[in-house]
Design brief:
Helices cover 34% and strands 34% of the residues. By secondary structure, the chain is α+β, with helices and mostly antiparallel strands. Among the domains are: 70 residues, OB fold (Dihydrolipoamide Acetyltransferase, E2P) (Beta Barrel); 119 residues, Helix Hairpins. The strands form five sheets. The chain has a six-stranded antiparallel β-barrel. A hairpin with a 2-residue loop joins strand 17 and strand 18. Helix 2 packs antiparallel against helix 3. The two termini are 37 Å apart.
Length: 400
């Protein structure tokens, strides 16, 4: 109703001006009838609807890459459909490097097993050879009865030396076995670490293909909260950024942006009425629910900061959907029954505010006290009465 009332007032003022310009009387000034009406200070801004309970699909954590595929906004998707693919060259290179490292480690352990087996076999052969020599030397023990004392001592030394050698070889065999086991465990642990890292990188690469978690309407997300630019193929994206949303149509909210001068006039809880360009005749109502505390520049290179405002949608005449453009009529103030006049009918005189009240063919200069007002309409707290006529143009000296 406020938009209609303002339109009618503008038409009345324009008609008075037209009459003034077309009449031949120099003392005919456009006037405005003083009446009591509801005063409404309404701020109108462009906004758009968003879903309150959207499912957001993010870029995977610890990943940065280039978008090579992303679903178009407005596409109906089914659960499991591919909605975005990211290409990360660094991740691919790391996966390839780890694959080569794993192959090298597997080859190393095969070579280690082969060399250890050979070394162990040679040492076992030495032990067996020593055992054979000991047995052979022991078999000659009967002949020692017929040997000279010198020959017996020599034979005894040979047997003693063979026994010492046997003990040494057995100890070396046991030590080599322990060393070989340590070397194998070291390489096996490195292989396990490489496998785990490779599996982690494989999962990261798989996570670069994003799938729809449920059926729904896919909408590309904004690259930045303060920008209307949406993600597209070729954009660089990194850790945790929202790429696509699947909005819930059951509950909506409205987002719009205000310059600082208008932002200061707003308060949480202010009423809002919405109209929709794409849905003529549809209206919705809600309230201001969130006001950003920090302004952002929405256009690169611009010094103008705007503040993001979020408003609820509590009721609608007809169903709506996310991403609809809307006109937000924000009711900053409403006074139901008061005297309201066009702001252009109030003039300055010596730091005071005056109006010119029509008295016959003359105009009486009258001091008025102002209430709240806007650039279009202002409340007159004292000084005017309903039914009087006031000039919309300051009269000349001869007319007052």
């Amino acid at each position: 109703m406020s938009g209609y009332r303002e339109l009618m007032l503008s038409c009345m003022i324009a008609l008075e001006l037209l009459v003034s310009c077309t009449s031949g009387r120099g003392d005919a000034l456009p006037t405005y009838p003083v009446i009591r009406m509801a005063y409404e200070d309404v701020l109108v801004m462009e906004g758009h609807t968003e879903s309150v309970n959207s499912i957001n699909i993010h870029c995977p954590p610890n990943v940065g890459g280039t978008i090579v595929h992303i679903v178009e906004s407005g596409t109906e998707v089914k659960k499991g459909d591919v909605i975005c693919v990211i290409e990360d060259d660094n991740l691919a290179q790391e996966y390839e490097r780890l694959t080569l490292d794993l192959e090298a480690a597997l080859a190393e352990i095969d070579k280690l097993h082969a060399s250890q087996h050979l070394e162990y076999a040679l040492l076992e052969a030495q032990v067996k050879n020593n055992e054979a020599e000991t047995i052979l030397a022991s078999s000659d023990s009967l002949q020692m009865l017929y040997m000279s004392p010198t020959e017996r001592r020599t034979k005894a030394l040979e047997l003693e030396r063979a026994g010492i050698e046997r003990v040494r070889l057995l100890k070396k065999l046991e030590a080599i076995k322990g060393i070989q086991e340590i070397d194998v465990v070291r390489v096996e642990k490195r292989i396990e670490r490489l496998k785990r890292r490779l599996e982690g990188e494989r999962k990261k690469m798989e996570s670069l293909t994003l799938h729809a978690p449920q059926d729904g309407l896919a909408v590309r997300a904004r690259r930045f909260p303060w920008s209307d630019e949406r993600w597209k193929v070729g954009d660089h994206v990194d850790n945790g950024r929202i790429l696509v949303t699947l909005p819930d149509f059951d509950q909506l909210k409205v987002l719009f942006y205000l310059p600082e001068t208008e932002y200061k006039r707003l308060q949480l809880g202010d009423s809002v009425m919405y109209t929709f360009d794409a849905l003529p005749g549809n209206r919705a109502w809600g309230r201001i629910t969130k006001m950003a505390s920090v302004g952002q520049t929405r256009i690169e290179g611009s010094q103008v900061k705007t503040f993001e405002i979020e408003a609820s949608v509590d009721s609608l005449l007809m169903p709506a959907e996310p991403r609809l453009s809307t006109q937000c009529h924000i009711y900053l103030r409403h006074i139901p029954d008061t005297i309201v006049v066009p702001t252009i009918a109030i003039f300055d005189k010596d730091s005071l505010k005056v109006v010119y009240v029509k008295q016959g063919r003359k105009y009486e200069e009258r001091l008025v006290t102002l209430g709240t007002g806007s650039t279009k309409m202002t409340i007159i707290a004292h000084g005017l009465h309903e039914g009087e006529q006031i000039a919309l143009i300051r009269p000349g000296r001869n007319n007052h």
